Amino acid sequence: MTDSNEFVLQEEAGHVARLTLNRPASRNALSVAMLAALSQRLDGLEKRGDIRVVVLQAEGPAFCAGHDLKELTAHRSDADGGRGFFEETMRGCSALMQKIVGLRQPVIAAVDEIATAAGCQLVASCDLAVAGPNARFCTPGVDIGLFCSTPAVALSRNLAPKHALEMLLTGFPIGAEAALRIGLVNRVSQDGARTGARALAELIAAKSPEAIRFGKRAFYAQREKPLVEAYDLASAVMAENMLAEDAKEGIAAFLEKRAPEWREP
């Protein structure tokens, strides 16, 4: 089944949906229209119990070049100098990144090209990321007088502070192996990011969708809390998860030495 619109293509195979950023001429920049299209796609998938994993990939020479600087610059002639449009754009981008984190399904970025600025933020906001051998990542806002403050939110939650700040302060691009070493991506696939992401997605899609939903939500919720509160929250989630149908089935299957049969959420 294939469903597409002008900006983001959607293709499904089994329990995995693949979203493809499809504005190669603009290097898949996050214009207002691109933000809206991707957000709409995610909203549709959020409601789909049959889709267990989402892969985000891109067409063209760049995974995503960040914000559309031409679009932003065009609004400098607005009466307010562009402030209103700039604020609206940054709020929309931030909302999209949070939507990815809050999505019931895990989201895997498949990056074969360069991801810059808010494009790097997009990769860091995904739950997992697979890079091809030629992928590159950078936050070069400092080169044009615009510090990547919103990408810093996602980077600082993925990387050690010194790694994140080095990327932000220098704007220097790093390759796939360096991104793997500092934790920006999970693995480098020599067969290409799409192949590696597909294998990872299928592995996760075979697990209990109910357990994955519990786990993703709890992971992000506990991470922002002090240790005691984090354990309190995780303990409550574990108890709730134990009462779920997939946990009953999974434990019974383990004890009976058979394959579990997961129900669709």
TrEMBL record:
Keyword Zinc in annotation: no
SUPFAM superfamilies, per the entry: ClpP/crotonase
Taxonomy, superkingdom: Bacteria
Keyword Manganese assigned: no
Keywords, sorted A to Z: Fatty acid metabolism, Lipid metabolism, Transit peptide
Role this protein plays: May play a role in fatty acid biosynthesis and insulin sensitivity.
NCBIfam families: PRK08139.1
Similarity comment: family membership: Belongs to the enoyl-CoA hydratase/isomerase family.
Record-given protein name: Enoyl-CoA hydratase domain-containing protein 3, mitochondrial
Source species of the chain: Methylocystis iwaonis
Organism taxonomic ancestry: Bacteria, Pseudomonadati, Pseudomonadota, Alphaproteobacteria, Hyphomicrobiales
